[in-house]
Every structure is written in structure tokens, then in C-alpha cells.
Write a structure and sequence with these properties.
Jelly Rolls, 16% helix, binds 2-oxoglutaric acid, binds fe (ii) ion, Oxoglu/Fe-dep_dioxygenase_dom
């Protein structure tokens, strides 16, 4: 359901923009359907293994390029060795539209934005993501983040450390969050998910879906 009284846009730091309720519910539903397809293969959605033997509580599947700590490749060598699903043109269009809304219709960065990878994350009620930087890309183009399903607390910090100052922001279904410019390498994480807060009309009975669109800056050579 689209909120009756959507929250106001906010800019927690230079280059970081939160647009609540940006994605209409019909588009959220289509995104959920697409994520369901991607989650089933060629590389299944899975808990990413960390170098020291732990696993992430979030489940992830990637498009375009496969991310694992701490690099990208075309094939999911830590899962089943298969090439990841391609990054679809419609998702790049959605990313450009998102950036135009966040940074303004005249933004040159929005017009030339060409994301080539997405991390599709699924959070059940217990999943979290610790404070980290998205820094395995060889590009400083913005990250576009879309959320569907249960509400979470997204902690958006600074570029110097995992600690304060940071801002805790509730991300609800349909919210857009963009971080680029001076905020592109800010630490961020998900401290809490509120189970049962999503709208089943999105096609998700429970849990939270988050997509981050990125420019890897990588080529196949
Ligand atoms: O789930 C979120 O909102 C953030 C995801 C994230 O930071 C990541 O995938 O690197
Ligand atoms: Fe991240």
C-alpha cells in the first residue's frame, strides 16, 4: 500500500538522499517477482561466507557481477561456479530514474549512470548487516538502494570510521536511498528489521528485500 502521508525526503549527509515511498506498490511487486526468479538461479540466493569462516545473516544473490568478500567476478566461484544472471537494462533505467529524482533532473551524474551490478539481499527477522563501506567497486559512482517489505533501521555513518556520527533512518517498503559524492564511501549497515511490518500486497509475506545498484568499473579482460 502506498503511504497516505509519506515521510519527507531527507539528506542525512552531502550526497546522501532518502526518498520515502519512492517506488509505487505495483513496481515493488514486479521487483519482488524478479527477485524471486534471480533467487532461484543460475546462482542460488545464499548466506555469503566470510573469509574467517562465519556466514552473513543476510541472504544474497548478485546480478551482472558476483560479489564475495572482497571482490567481484563474473562467476560465483564460492557458490556453484556458474555465471551470474545478467544485469537487466530495465534495472539500469530504474537506477537512472532513481538518481534523477534524488539529485535532480539536470544531474549529469544521473544521466550517465550505468550500473552493472546489483546485490539483492534478503533479511529475515533476525538478519542484520554490520557497519561497512561498499568499496570493492573501482568507481565512485553513486549506490542506489531500494527496499521492499519489512521496515528496517538503516544506520548511515561517516567515511572515517564505523562509529559516530551516524544517523539512524527507518527504511520502509518502497523507499529509495542514494549515496554518492562525498558520502559514497560512508560506513553503513542495518541494525534491526521489524518483522511483520511489510505489506503482503508486494508479494512478500515476510522479510525485507534490498537491492543496491552499483557501478563496478570492471571490464572482462
Ligand atoms: O540492506 C540495506 O539497506 C543495505 C545493504 C548494503 O549495505 C549492502 O548490500 O552493501
Ligand atoms: Fe553496503
Amino acid at each position: 500500500m502506498d503511504a497516505l502521508i509519506p515521510a519527507e525526503p531527507s539528506r542525512p549527509a552531502p550526497g546522501a538522499v532518502h526518498l520515502p515511498g519512492w517506488l509505487p506498490s505495483g513496481e515493488q511487486r514486479r521487483l519482488v517477482e524478479a527477485c524471486r526468479e534471480w533467487a532461484s538461479g543460475p546462482v542460488p540466493m545464499r548466506h555469503t561466507r566470510l573469509p574467517r569462516g562465519g556466514v552473513m545473516s543476510v541472504r544474497t544473490v548478485c546480478l551482472g557481477w558476483h560479489w564475495r568478500p572482497y571482490r567481484y567476478s563474473r562467476t560465483a566461484d564460492d557458490v556453484n561456479g556458474r555465471r551470474v544472471a545478467p544485469f537487466p537494462g530495465w534495472l539500469a533505467d530504474l537506477g537512472r530514474r532513481a538518481l534523477r529524482c534524488a539529485y535532480g533532473e539536470e544531474s549529469a551524474e544521473a544521466h550517465r549512470y550505468a550500473p552493472d551490478t546489483a546485490l539483492v539481499n534478503f533479511y529475515d527477522g533476525d538478519a542484520r548487516m554490520g557497519m561497512h563501506q561498499d568499496k570493492d567497486e573501482r568507481s565512485s559512482a553513486p549506490v542506489v538502494s531500494l527496499s521492499v517489505g519489512d521496515t528496517c533501521v538503516f544506520r548511515f555513518g561517516n567515511t572515517a570510521s564505523r562509529g559516530k556520527p551516524y544517523t539512524d533512518i527507518e527504511l520502509n517498503s518502497g523507499d529509495l536511498f542514494v549515496f554518492g559524492g562525498p558520502s559514497r564511501f560512508a560506513y553503513h549497515g542495518v541494525t534491526k528489521v521489524f518483522p511483520g511490518t511489510g505489506d503482503p500486497a508486494t508479494g512478500m509475506a515476510s522479510g525485507r528485500l534490498n537491492l543496491t545498484l552499483r557501478v563496478t568499473g570492471l571490464t572482462d579482460d
